[in-house]
Queue: 2 jobs
Job 1
Amino acid sequence: MENVIFRRRSIRRFFDKPVEQEKLERILRAGMQAPSAHNNQRWEFIVITEQDKKDAVSKMSPWAGMVANAPVSIVVLGKHNDEELNKWFAQDLGACTENILLQIAEEGLGGCWMGFYPDMDRVQMLKDFFNVPDGVIPFCVISLGYSPDENRYVDRADVSKIHYNKY
Ligand SMILES: Cc1cc2nc3c(=O)[nH]c(=O)nc-3n(C[C@H](O)[C@H](O)[C@H](O)COP(=O)(O)O)c2cc1C
């Protein structure tokens, strides 16, 4: 039970210490390794490091306060201009987001997923603030950084949720 899948936790407190660019790039590359419907890879990212932008995004959701204090936050966005692929948007971006969270833990950092899509008020605030073009939707925000808190395993396995061959 030692790998990052089991240890990853939502971490919301961060030291005032920058994240190395090579770590950040590996984290983003991990996101781009995710599976996606028809292998469409429609994800894009806005990396936020400027304090005025962190402050603004931290106010766009009641649960996003930690963005103001994280050295880096990533807005995960998805292109959705193909009707056939639209319906898989949330699954593609969810897989991408989880990959990012796992790589954050692998790098010895802490991170937290903040839900924006499908709350369209929050989505619109991000779109307006970053001038995101039509056909691209912000999906979530992930804050990351060095933290006093550790990724640590909690046992959530519940065998009553597993059904073999019939419900
Ligand atoms: C879709 C989604 C949206 C979430 N939104 C927020 C959020 O806005 N703010 C926050 O602090 N945590 C958010 N979380 C983190 C959850 O609260 C967290 O994953 C859950 O409590 C389990 O804890 P763990 O991540 O430490 O295992 C979100 C998680 C998911 C999957």
Job 2
Amino acid sequence: MEAKAEKKKTPATIEIIEAWCKGCEICVKLCPVDALEMRDLVVAVKDIDACTKCMLCELRCPDFCITVS
Ligand code: SF4
Ligand code: SF4
């Protein structure tokens, strides 16, 4: 078995268009590493270092508020 790949990843950047966010919390609930949180009904980045760039939040946000790079 292959040893756990210790991939040196570049840190993620998460852009949020706050004006488009309707506060549905889908992204917060979907994030597997709990990197997002709600702040006053708008999503915010809680822990950028935790983000694995899985893209779930970007893909599943119904209002296209999130861009992960
Ligand atoms: S890209 Fe994945 S890990 Fe990063 S904030 Fe979005 S859901 Fe969480
Ligand atoms: S999924 Fe989109 S609209 Fe819903 S809370 Fe997240 S960023 Fe806002």
